[in-house]
Design a protein that fits this description.
InterPro entries: ASL1, Asl1_glyco_hydro_catalytic, GH, RNA_pol_sigma-70_dom, RNA_pol_sigma70_ECF_CS, RNA_pol_sigma70_r2, RNA_pol_sigma_r2. GO terms for molecular function: DNA binding; sigma factor activity. The protein is an alpha/beta fold. Helix content is about 40%, strand content about 10%. The protein folds into 3 domains: about 230 residues, no CATH class; about 55 residues, no CATH class; about 240 residues, TIM Barrel, CATH 3.20.20.80. It has 19 helices and 16 strands. Helix 3 crosses helix 4, helix 4 packs across helix 8 and helix 9 packs across helix 11. The two termini are about 50 Å apart.
C-alpha cells in the first residue's frame, strides 16, 4: 500500500493547519485521480471530477468526526461524484468518444507510466470494454487487488452489503475476463471469420460488439485459445495501482493561505483561506466556498483558479453562508403497530392509515443499507435473504423470516452449515452456479457437495440458475437428473428471471417461465430473484410506470399459483447503484416500485 498522510495530518488539516492541508491534498490526489480516471476511462470531464472531489473534501473536512476514517470517507465522496457525473448527462446519451483526449487516455497513461506489458497490458486494454457500472467497480477493486484499498472501504464507498459487493465484483471480473479474450482475438493476424463478423464495426469498444466477438471466440476453433492461459487478474495487479498524475493536475491545488489574528498566528474568527493555483488542467473557472467555520474555525475558505495566461491576482473571497447552530426538533417517535402502514388522503382530506399487504410468500433480496430492518417491516415482507448463511450483516425485524443460503463451493464447510442450520428450517442452494462470475460450479461439483447440505436435515431448495431452468439438458435439468439418479433430496426449485422487454408482455413472459419450470420438475417454486433489467443495451431500466405495471401483474400471478411458495424482488435497497430498481431509499421511503410491491399480496 502506498504511503499516504496519516491520522495526525488529517487531524491537523481539520484544525486549519495550511501545511497539513497541502500534504493531505497532495498525498491523496493520486488515489482520487486513479479511481476517477478508471471509472470515466479518461473522459475529458475526469479532471473536473477530481477537482470537485477535492473541493468537497476540503469543504466538509470539519464534519469528519473520526480522522481514522478519512480514506473511506474520501473514497465514498469520489464514488458519489463519479455517479453524479453520469447522472447529470442527458438521458440515454453515452459518453461521446470524441470528447476523449487522446493525449490523456487513462488506459494509455496507465500502460505507459506503470510499464504494463504482457497480460498486465492486455488487462488494462480490456477495461475499455467494460460496461459503465462495472468500470466504477473495477476502479475500486483494482485498488483492492493491488493493496491500496480494503474490502470494507469498497463496501462503505459503494453502499453495498459485503455479500452483494462480492456478487457484483464476481460479475465484473467475469466481464473483464471476457473483455481480455476479446482483446486477444482482435490482435493481428485476425481470424478471417472474425474479420467478417467485424464488418460494420467502427472500432470503438462497446457492449454489443464485446458480446458478438466473445460469442465468436467461443464457437471458433481458431479463436478459442483466446480464453486459455489467463493469469488471474488479482495476481497481475499486485503493486500496479496508482497512476502518476498527468502534468498540471498536481499543481491545480497550490499553496493555501489562512488569514490569522495579527500577532498570534491563530485563525481569526472571520478567517479566510485563499488557495493560489497554477497549471492548465482545464479552461474552466474553478471556484467555490470550501468551508464555513469547519477548517478554519469560523471563516470562509475560498478557492480560485487562474488561467495560466493571466497575470497573478488575489484569490476571490466568498462570504460563507451562516450555519444555524440550533438543533432541529426531534421527529416524533412512530406509534407501535402490529401492521406497517402508510398514509393516503381520505375523501375528507385527512390522512388515513393504509396497511401494507402482508403475504408469507412475499420477500426480498436484501443487502446492507441503513433502512433494511424498517423497510422489511414496512413493505410487509414475510421473509428475506441476503445471499449468506446468517443474518449477522442484515438483521431483520421480528416476525420476518430469514432464510439462509450456501452461496458456493467455498461455503460447504461444517462451520458454515452449522451457522445456516441455526437460522431456520429451510436452506437455499448455490447462487447461479451456471455463471462464471457467480458461484461457478459444475453440475458434478454441486452434486458432490449436496449430501453435506442434506445432512443438515433442513428443507432444501435447489441451486438457483441464472437462466434456462426449463431447458432440457440445461444446468438445472442435469442437476435434477443427477440428484434423482443418486437418490439426493431436493424439496423445491429456485429460479431467477430478469426481463429486458419492458412492455405489458413482460408479466406473461415471466409467469410463463415460472409455469414451465414447475411443469418440468413438478416441485414447489421459489423465485429468489426477479425484476426488469436489460443487461445488454439501453435503456437498462424501465420507467417507474413500467415497473409498477410489472410488479402488480407479476405478484398477482405469483399469489394465485399455489405451487409458488416464495418470491423475492431484487432487491430491497434503492440506494447507490440500485436506485433504478430497488424498493426503498430508507426505512420508510418506498420508491414507486416499492409502493407497488408493498401493496402486493
Amino acid at each position: 500500500m502506498s504511503r499516504q498522510p496519516g491520522i495526525a495530518i488529517v487531524t491537523a488539516a481539520r484544525a486549519g493547519d495550511p501545511a497539513a492541508v497541502d500534504r493531505l491534498v497532495a498525498g491523496y490526489l493520486p488515489l482520487v485521480y486513479t479511481i476517477v480516471g478508471r471509472a470515466l476511462e479518461g473522459h475529458a470531464d475526469a479532471d473536473d471530477v477530481v477537482q470537485e472531489v477535492m473541493l468537497r473534501v476540503l469543504r466538509n473536512l470539519g464534519e469528519l468526526r473520526d480522522p481514522a476514517a478519512f480514506r473511506s470517507w474520501l473514497v465514498a465522496i469520489t464514488v458519489r461524484q463519479v455517479r453524479e457525473r453520469f447522472r447529470n448527462r442527458p438521458p440515454a446519451v453515452e459518453l461521446d468518444p470524441e470528447l476523449r483526449d487522446p493525449g490523456a487516455d487513462f488506459t494509455d497513461l496507465a500502460i505507459t507510466r506503470l510499464e504494463f506489458s504482457g497480460q498486465r497490458r492486455e488487462t488494462a486494454e480490456a477495461t475499455r470494454w467494460l460496461d459503465e457500472e462495472n468500470r466504477e467497480l473495477l476502479s475500486l477493486w483494482w485498488l483492492e487487488a493491488s493493496g491500496e484499498l480494503t474490502r470494507d472501504e469498497i463496501v462503505e464507498a459503494t453502499g453495498l452489503g459485503r455479500q452483494h459487493a462480492a456478487v457484483r465484483i464476481q460479475r465484473m471480473k467475469g466481464q473483464l475476463e471476457t473483455a481480455r479474450a476479446v482483446v486477444r482475438a482482435l490482435r493481428p493476424p485476425r481470424c478471417p471469420e472474425l474479420s467478417t463478423t467485424l464488418s460494420g464495426w467502427d472500432g470503438r469498444p462497446g457492449a454489443l460488439w464485446r458480446k458478438r466477438i466473445a460469442r465468436h471466440t467461443r464457437d471458433c476453433r481458431h479463436c478459442a485459445p483466446a480464453w486459455q492461459d489467463m493469469v488471474e487478474a488479482e495476481r497481475l495487479l499486485a503493486g500496479m495501482a496508482l497512476v502518476p498524475l498527468p502534468p498540471g493536475l498536481g499543481s491545480a491545488f497550490g499553496k493555501i493561505q489562512i488569514n490569522t489574528v495579527p500577532g498570534t498566528g491563530t485563525p481569526a474568527a472571520n478567517a479566510t483561506v485563499a488557495v493560489q493555483t497554477g497549471g492548465a488542467v482545464t479552461s474552466k473557472v474553478l471556484a467555490g466556498v470550501l468551508a464555513a467555520g469547519l477548517v478554519t474555525g469560523g471563516g470562509a475558505l475560498a478557492y480560485a483558479y487562474r488561467e495560466p495566461a493571466e497575470p497573478p491576482r488575489p484569490a476571490a473571497v466568498v462570504a460563507a453562508p451562516e450555519v444555524s447552530t440550533t438543533p432541529a426538533a426531534p421527529s416524533p417517535a412512530p406509534s407501535p403497530s402490529a401492521v406497517p402502514t402508510t398514509k393516503s388522503p381520505s375523501p375528507s382530506g385527512k390522512a388515513t392509515a393504509v396497511p401494507a399487504a402482508r403475504s408469507p410468500k412475499k420477500g426480498a433480496g436484501v443487502w446492507r443499507f441503513a433502512g433494511a430492518k424498517g423497510a422489511l417491516k414496512d413493505v410487509g415482507a414475510g421473509w428475506y435473504y441476503d445471499w449468506g448463511p446468517a443474518d449477522d450483516e442484515v438483521p431483520g425485524p421480528a416476525g420476518v423470516e430469514f432464510v439462509p443460503m450456501i452461496w458456493g463451493a467455498a461455503d460447504v464447510t461444517g462451520a458454515t452449515l452449522k451457522r445456516a442450520k441455526a437460522e431456520g428450517d429451510v436452506l437455499l442452494g448455490f447462487n447461479e452456479p451456471d455463471l462464471a462470475e457467480q458461484s461457478n460450479m459444475t453440475v458434478e461439483a454441486a452434486l458432490a457437495a449436496w449430501p453435506k447440505l442434506e445432512a443438515t436435515g433442513m428443507r432444501l431448495v435447489s441451486p438457483a440458475v441464472a437462466f434456462g431452468g426449463d431447458t432440457a439438458g440445461g444446468w438445472l435439468d442435469r442437476f435434477m437428473t443427477g440428484a434423482g439418479a443418486k437418490g439426493l433430496r431436493v424439496d423445491a426449485i429456485a429460479l431467477h428471471w430478469y426481463g429486458s422487454d419492458f412492455s405489458a408482455a413482460a408479466v406473461n413472459q415471466f409467469l410463463g417461465y415460472v409455469d414451465a419450470v414447475h411443469r418440468r420438475y413438478g416441485k414447489p417454486i421459489w423465485v429468489t430473484e426477479f425484476g426488469l433489467i436489460n443487461f445488454g443495451s439501453s435503456p437498462r431500466y424501465p420507467s417507474d410506470a413500467q415497473k409498477v405495471r410489472f410488479i402488480k401483474g407479476a405478484t398477482a400471478g405469483l399469489e394465485k399459483r399455489s405451487y409458488v411458495e416464495r418470491y423475492a424482488w431484487f432487491g430491497l435497497p434503492a440506494v447507490g447503484d440500485s436506485v433504478d430498481f430497488g424498493l426503498y431509499t430508507d426505512a420508510d421511503s418506498p420508491t414507486a416500485a416499492g409502493k407497488a410491491y408493498r401493496a402486493a399480496g
